[in-house]
Write a structure and sequence with these properties.
Layout: H1 2-6, H2 23-37, H3 43-51, E1 56-60, E2 65-69, H4 73-83, H5 86-111, H6 120-126, H7 146-150, E3 169-171, E4 176-181, H8 184-190, H9 199-203, E5 216-222, E6 229-231, E7 236-244, H10 253-256, H11 263-266, E8 269-275, E9 281-287, E10 295-297, E11 304-305, E12 310-314, E13 319-325, E14 330-332, H12 334-341, E15 346-348, E16 353-357
Parallel strand pairs: 1-15
Antiparallel strand pairs: 1-2, 3-16, 4-5, 4-15, 5-13, 6-12, 7-8, 7-11, 8-9, 9-13, 10-12, 14-16
Length: about 375
């Protein structure tokens, strides 16, 4: 039974194949399937790998395989000490926030220096199986600083957009680990554990948030190895930009899953309101994080954007985009909802289908 489980196809359940990348990952698949077969809650499986273990496991939407995210163990220990304890967060309140801000600014300047380009080869080596240089628009010698490489552009067509001619189909805004919830209540039940999280807190005082209060929430978490330009998930007109100052906590699940920390409502962020014909208004929130002091946009108020159009980029680090849809405006794809209900992030790329507007309920299939 163990052998069959390790070879079990996560997507169809009727195909025998080897797909886990490591022995450790195979053991995750065994636990994942066992929890389903014995009718145990799969909620703990996803959450524990993100918040309290020394590794993060996500499910790749293309291959339907569990994949381990590489994080240095010393960094994991540090984050847990800070974000998973009252003592750690008390230190934050007593001056560590300013340290993070200064550290991010200092690191940003360093990564813009010519000398920083020397770090690119070692970065590629560490993430050699997760960065495809064949997709990158320019050759490696084009990048004169690390940050130039970090915000690299991709070749045209590298990220096909699902149902490009159908504006009632929303798409992924980033290469990321995605969590999607049909309601805000689901997001706080399965993933966001900060006691003070709310849509009003996320959008701030300068955005009329009433229409979003009972809406759908999609979280796009970018890791350092990801393509760091973010794109519009919908077609519409950019109504306004709102900047909210704040801290630069990490957006790693260790912090997001902490009941002591309110990452999304306390971090520096920019809110973009996109007015659409199919989904009503969509709040696109770009959130800064540790080592990401800079959020840059390439669009302006009044611009018309097509889904898949670039909106901007994050400089060095990892960060997050959150999209909030008005209530009953989108039907999010079932596989994304099912994974999120297990507290399991889904690895996706820009342009993959996210969901469809009500009352349209047909899926648009995009071949990998």
């Amino acid at each position: 039974m163990i052998h069959m489980t390790l070879c079990f196809d996560e997507g169809t359940g009727n195909q025998m194949t080897g797909g886990f990348l490591t022995d450790r990952q195979a053991s995750y698949g065994w636990m994942f399937k066992l929890s389903e077969w014995t009718h145990l809650s799969t909620y703990d499986v996803g959450l524990n790998t993100g918040s309290s273990a020394s590794h993060i496991v996500v499910i790749d939407r293309k291959t339907k395989r569990l994949v381990e995210e590489l994080i240095d163990s010393k960094i994991v220990m540090s984050m847990r000490a800070i974000y998973q304890s009252k003592i750690g967060l008390r230190l934050m309140d007593q001056g560590a926030k300013e340290i993070l801000q200064n550290l991010s600014e200092k690191q940003g300047k360093k990564m813009n220096s010519v000398e920083s380009a020397q770090n690119i080869p070692s970065f590629l080596e560490f993430f050699k199986d997760q960065i495809n240089m064949a997709e990158v628009k320019y050759p490696l010698d084009h990048f004169k600083t690390f940050n130039e490489f970090f915000v690299r552009e991709l070749k045209p067509g590298a990220r096909p957009i699902a149902c490009m001619d159908q504006d009632d189909v929303a798409v992924s805004a980033a290469d990321c680990r995605l969590m999607a919830f049909q309601s805000v209540d689901d997001s706080t039940r399965f993933w966001i554990k900060g006691r003070k999280f709310s849509i009003k807190g996320l959008l701030g005082n300068d955005v009329q948030s009433d229409a979003f209060l009972d809406g759908s929430l999609v979280i796009f978490r970018l890791a350092p190895q990801d393509y760091h330009r973010f794109h519009s998930p919908v077609s519409g007109v950019i109504e306004k930009f709102v900047n909210v100052s704040g801290s630069l906590y990490t957006v790693n699940p260790i912090a997001v899953n902490s009941k002591y920390c309110n990452v999304f409502t306390e971090n520096k962020r920019t809110i973009v309101i996109i007015s659409t014909a199919e989904f009503g208004k969509v709040a696109f929130v770009a959130i800064g994080a540790t080592m990401v002091g800079s959020i840059s946009f390439v669009r302006q108020e009044g611009d018309h954007v097509k889904k898949g159009d670039e909106l901007g980029y994050f400089s060095f680090g990892g960060s997050t985009v959150i999209c909030v849809f008005e209530k009953d405006s989108i039907k999010i794809d079932e596989d994304l909802l099912a994974n999120s209900a297990r507290s399991l992030e889904t690895l996706v790329t820009v342009g993959m289908q996210l969901g469809v507007s009500f009352p349209k309920l047909e899926n648009c299939v995009l071949e990998p």
